[in-house]
Each structure stands twice: as structure tokens, then as C-alpha cells.
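Entry 14. Ran structure prediction on the chain below.
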Amino acid sequence: MDTRTLGQSDIKITPIIMGTWQAGKKMWVGIEDSQTIEAIRDGFEAGITTVDTAELYGEGHSERIVAEALTDVRDRAVYATKVFSNHLKYDLVIEACERSLKNLQTDYIDLYQIHWPSGTWNSEKVPIEETMEALNKLKEAGKIRAIGVSNFSRSQLEEAAQYGRIDSLQPPYSLFWRQVEKELVPYCVENNISIIAYSPLAQGILTGKFGPDHKFAEGDHRAKNKLYAIKENYARVQQALEKLRPIAERNNCTLAQLSLAWLIAQPQTNAIVGARKSEQALSNAKAGEVKLSAEDLAEIDSIGRIVTDRLDENPVMWNF
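Output, C-alpha cells:
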């Protein structure tokens, strides 16, 4: 798989990135460690050498699973992890990074990201200057190679950038969830900040495997996703999926691969895709090989707006 430069750093990332929220197990059902490890490893062998995780995912469990899967090929892998919004005071950032380094069984993290802005999820409000001071210190010490932010608004991103180099933004972004395009994409393009999109398949909706009457298992957080949970949204989702199927067929790819190929064709954009099993990881890797024509990209864009034109401006995908 071809690689791309992360922001203004010297780090090379793959446009398809292995996502590991599910590897933490918390808020997911039916996740087996052995299958996750196999999926991460098989994805790596298929070319997905960049992996995204976070201290929050299973309170470090996801990071430990990544280490179990990839420690012997660490020199060829790119690790991205995140510090949560309740650990953004200077000392807590340093401590969180040390925990992540231990969990990942490594002496450096390629991309270290602020998971959510301070004050979110009932966390204490911490000045971004203080958090960035800690991140810059970690970078100077060689503990991290690049700094990123996740779930930031444009104004929050601009403020963080006053105190250090920001090389990536991780927002929710997919064909069916596109608030980021309004203000953040132009800013990232102008300032050479890589976009690392999470939920690029809208948590599975864009695979087409969830029909009109689908019900999630007890405890599966996806039931609270606004695209699923709001009846009118879900009806428009099904309508759009039917229009996308012929485009996937003529490009000899799945709906998921089509959606990922469209996303990584957007300016500065890469896609974090989770995988429970090896088959999913291998299928995701193949999305990097799908080359869509300008006509296809325009048609897919138009179909996606059947869903996105009716959504509100709130960028958070869930009603937790």
C-alpha cells in the first residue's frame, strides 16, 4: 500500500489505518482477543502498517492487544494512540504517555493525540497551553514523534496550533457524516494537517450489511448512533445504500471498499477502519487499491448527501 506523509512530520502513514476501539472490548460485544490479534497482524501483512488506539479503549487493553500483535515488527509499524480528556493537566499527560508506552511495549509513540478537548465528558477544563507544553516536552524527549488532536472544532484546533505543531486531526468523517468538510477540511488543507477519519464506514452502516429491521445486541453502543437510532435518518441511509450498490458493482468492489476509496480520495484524508476478524482487515486493505473516476466520485458524493443534508450540525455521532 502506498504511504502518505503525516502533516509536516517525517512519518509515513498508510491511507487505510487499523482502528482498535473494538479491541478494548468495552462498549462492544462478541470481541475475542485472539481474533483481534490475528486481524491486526493479517492487516499489517496486507499493507495496513499504521494502527490507531487509545488509553480509553478498554483502559489500556486495546494498546496491549496492539503490542501483542505487532511488537516483533515494531520497526515497520506506525503507532498512534490518544490521551483522554481527564488526563490533560501537565503531569497527567506525562503519566498517561508513560502508561501507553508500557502498554504498547515501545519506547516511542509515533503520533500522540488529545482524544477529546478538555471539559468534554465531564472532565476538568485545562488550558490547551498547559497540555501542549506537556506534549512538546514529550516530543523533545523523543517519547512521541508527532502531536495530533481528535474531535476538535476549528477554533480549538487553531488555539492548539498556537502552542506547537499539530500534524493531524482525527474527526468522525464518512460519506454519511460530513460536518468536518465545512470548516475543518479547508483549515487542514491550508495548514498541511493530515485528517485521520474515524468511523469511516459510519460504524458499519456503509458495509450495507444492516438491513431496515436490524437490531443490535444488548450493550452494543452502535444502537445509540444517530444514523441508526433516528428512524428518519436510517430510512435515508437505506435509500442511499441502494443507489451506491451499482457503483460498487461496476468497480468490482464491496460497498465498504467503495466508501473507503471515496473517503481517502478527499483532500488530506485517511481512514481508520476497525476489524474484528482477519477477513475484514484484508477486505479493508483492498480498499486502498480501488481507483475511482472523477465521475464516480461526484456521483458517490451526491448520493451521500441524501443522508447528510438532513443531519444537524452536532459532530458527535451518538446520543449517549
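The chain has eleven helices and ten strands. Will compare against last week's run tomorrow.
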